[in-house]
Structures are given as C-alpha cells and as structure tokens.
Amino acid sequence: MTIKRVGAFGMLGFVIAGCSVGSTAAEPAIEELAGVASVIDGDTIEIHGKRVRLSGYDTPERGARCGDVNVYQQAALALSDFIGSRTVTCDVSGEDRWDRAIAVCDVAGVDIGEFMVSTGWGRDWPRYSDGRYADEEARAREAGANVWSPTCPADLWGDRSYD
Domain TNase-like, which positions (predicted)? Predict the structure, then answer.
C-alpha cells in the first residue's frame, strides 16, 4: 500500500512537471479571474483584491471635464452602474508596470470595453485592442455621445497616442 501511494505521488509529480514543460515564453499566459468587482475608474476594477486594467480601451483621467461635466467620474459611474453586483469574468493576459492584471472582461457575456466605448465613455486604443472597439467608437463619435460631445475639449486625452 505504501508503494502505491509513493507511485501515485510520483505520477502526480510527473504530470505536474509535464504541464510546465509545454509552455513557452512566446505564448501569452491566459488566466481567468472572476468575481464581484469594485470600480476604481472607467478602465480599472478590482476583483478579490487584485487591480485589473481593462484592456483595449481608455477613459478620461482624473480631473477631465467636458464643460461642467466631470467625465472621469461619469465614466466610472457608468461602469459601476453597468456592472452592478453581477459577476465579472476576466481573461488575464499579463500585468502592467503598476502590477495590475491586464484583462478583457465581461459581464453576462457582454464585453465591458465594448459597452464603455459604445456608450461614449471610452475610446478604442488600437495599440492594445487591434481595433476591436473601432466601430463602437465611430458610432459614439457620430452620435456625439458623452466624451464625444461638442463640450469636450480637443485635449481631453492629454498627450496619449492612440495609434
């Protein structure tokens, strides 16, 4: 009986070791993170104590205003209203320099980035999205929705490059 236990543990060790052999540095590690989220701002949430930078889109930074509207705050509120107390599911692809997970996340099957960009609270960031939200941004711009309102200044996005 002792021999079988040792054999089973030995086999388990072999299986675990075999799992790590197949991965390479060229393959991005995808990890799932899910739970109820707290909203930090329009493109950052926290799940189980882990900050998550929502990938592929950007929202206005602290202090950004369009006329009398604090669009930084309104983007965060829009995200919070959308998520509510529902479970957020994220596919994590890495971490940024601030140790935040980088992820594409959804709520009930709806991509959060798609929601934020289509409602005019964010913009597509092709460098990180490969244009995933370009159509949503074009429609929001055409409609003059939220950050695409005529009251928003041309320098709303600061010195960031969205190429």
Answer: 30-150
